[in-house]
Each structure stands twice: as C-alpha cells, then as structure tokens.
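Bench log. Compound arrived from synthesis this morning; before running ITC I wanted a structural hypothesis for how S-adenosylmethionine sits in the protein. Inputs:
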Amino acid sequence: MDLETAALLRDPLTRDPLELVREADQPFLLNPHLGRRFPIRDGIPVFVKLGELEGRNRQFRKLYDRVAIFYDVQSHIYAFLFGQNLRALRSGFLAELEFRPGDRVLEVSVGTAWNLRLLPPEIDFYGLDLSWGMLAKARRNLRCWKREARLFCGEGENLPFSDNCFDVVFQLGGLNFFNDKGRAIREMVRVARPGTRLLISDENEKQIRALYRKIPILGRRLWHHREGLGPPLDLLPASVEQPTVRHHADARFYTLTFRKPL
Ligand SMILES: C[S@@+](CC[C@H](N)C(=O)[O-])C[C@H]1O[C@@H](n2cnc3c(N)ncnc32)[C@H](O)[C@@H]1O
C-alpha cells in the first residue's frame, strides 16, 4: 500500500480519511477519529469481514469464496454452453466505456480481475470485491498475467473511497444480487469524477432462466433471487445524464451507461 492510494481511502461507514500505520511491520489503516482499524492482508485492505455481512451479501460472499478457484474456467464453460465467447461478449460490454492513458479506473465487484485483460495497459486499475476468495484468486491471476492492480475487500454499497476520485467506474455481473442495488449505484456515482461515464452490465432474467434450465445446480440460487433483474433504470439518481440501455447476446445481458453531470 502506497501513500497515494492511502490518501484516496475513507472509512466506508463514516467517510473519515484514514491513516496508513505500521505497527511491528504489520500495516493497517486507522480512522483516527473513531480508533477503528482496517487490516491489510497480503497487500489488500479489508473493510468488511464475513461476520459483519447480512442477507444476500453474506450468502453470496460464502458462495463466491467457495467457487473462486474454478470461477474463471466455469465462466468460459458457462459462456460456451450458451454459444457465447466470453472475451467477445465482455469486450462488447466494455466497449461502452471511454479510457485515456493514466485514467484511474474502478471495477466494483471485480471478482478474479478477469476483465482487466480486456482493458488498455496504461490505466491505473482499482478493484473492489466482497469475497476474499475471489480477491485471492485475482492476486494470483495478476501475478500470472504480469499486470498491476490495487485490490480492496469491501461492500459495493459502502465504497471506501473519497468523492470524485475515479475517471472510469464500472461493474460487470455483480449488481443483480447485491443487498441494496440503489445504494451501490449511488456509491459508484459518488466516487466518479464529474463528467465520468459509468457502466453497469449484468444478466437479464432470460439468461438466469436459461441457466436454471440447463445447469440447475448453478442456476437454482440465482433463479430464487430473480426479482428485479434487468437494467436498474429506476434506481439511477435523478441527476445522472444520458442513461442508455443496450441488450446483448439475444437480450440475455444488458449494459446501462450514464454520465455524472459536470
Ligand atoms: C459474477 S461475479 C463477477 C466478477 C467479475 N466482475 C467478472 O466479470 O468476472 C460477481 C462478483 O460480485 C461480488 N459481489 C457480490 N455482492 C457484492 C457486494 N455487495 N459488494 C461487492 N461485491 C459483491 C462477488 O463476490 C463476485 O465476485
């Protein structure tokens, strides 16, 4: 953890700035007002622990911790079974964004960081996820791909970053099953710089239904939580501009883009 990154970090609940402290060679982040500490494990600041999670966030954290090791292979198989090419599909989603060299980019629910391989090399990439298992796999992936990224363990609903600090903010495949999608969207907007274009992409109900039919063991839990799937236009803050929905792969997935006003 470097000082430049630490300067962007905030207590996710109070937004107080944090200090980077080293005690007996063990770094951690400290909220000096409340005395609250956030550990840094293997270089990853941990803002939330399993025991503090509730509802779907707790269920999905456990699920993703379990499947993390197989997740990348599983995603390819899953796409193949539906006649899709994972790389082409996700490149199509990400093509909705604008990147410039040196941009500070945040992916919320970064998972195993697989999408980073589809992004230009000269960006400064930050990834946040709820699941420690997925982040541990992301660390291994980054070493293997020789790519750099800063990873954070936290909830999308309470981002540990200061206001207006990212040039690009997106999430792919996470929002559908968050505890509080509206709050997570407001958080994405808060941390984006004014004028930033944001992207949310996820499965439509059609894909979840097809998954449930084809691979019930994978689809059962998702189908159970299918309520409210689809582009969350109704949850966008009234201030955002140019909300645009596109459907992809026979309307099995959507992308929703919008801009934070200047
Ligand atoms: C389907 S995976 C997508 C991972 C990655 N974005 C990708 O495209 O490969 C969904 C991810 O969302 C994360 N997630 C679920 N709920 C979350 C929340 N409330 N806050 C942050 N991450 C969450 C899960 O841990 C999981 O890694």
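What the model suggests: The first helix runs from residue 3 to 8. The pocket of S-adenosylmethionine is lined by residues 57, 60, 64, 109-111, 114-115, 129-131, 134, 155-157, 172-174, 177-179 (CB under 6 Å).
ITC booked for Thursday regardless.
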